[in-house]
Amino acid sequence: QVQLVESGGGLVQAGGSLRLSCAASGRTFSSDDMNWYRQVPGKEREFVAAIGWGASTQYEFYANSVKGRFTISRDNAKNTVYLQMNSLKFEDTAIYYCKGPRDSDWGQGTQVTVSS
User: pLDDT by residue for the chain (116 residues), tens digit each?
Assistant: First the structure.
């Protein structure tokens, strides 16, 4: 059974940094598109970042709200995807979810709270 487990969330002051991890098990995700989403209670889940393969090279793609501050990366040997979050803002507060290529590939989420 495929499992995605996020970790690395926590409480940080505005301007600080966190690194989220998404460890995958059950199958290898090294050639798959992987994504980070986030959700604030009462609001829809929103896209944050993606990493995948284009024609011949790896690509990264970001929501405008995090571009230049967040970096998505992967370690295929560890079957893990990361989200490095710098210059955090209060509005980055949310539950962050890792998502694989299939509709059912979701982690349980990790809470990120940024204090202003």
Answer: 789 999 999 999 999 999 999 999 888 888 889 999 999 999 999 999 999 987 778 899 999 999 999 999 999 999 999 999 999 999 999 999 999 999 999 999 999 999 98
- Residue 48 burial by CB count (10 A; 0-12/13-18/19+): exposed, middle or buried? buried
DSSP bridge partners of 11: 113
The β-bridge relationship of strands 58-62 and 70-75 is: unpaired
User: Is the Cβ–Cβ distance between 114 and 14 less than 8 Å?
Assistant: yes
Whole-number CA gyration radius for the chain: 14
12: which 2 tokens? 């940080």
**Amino acid letter, residue 91:** E
22 in Cβ contact with 106 (< 8 Å) = no
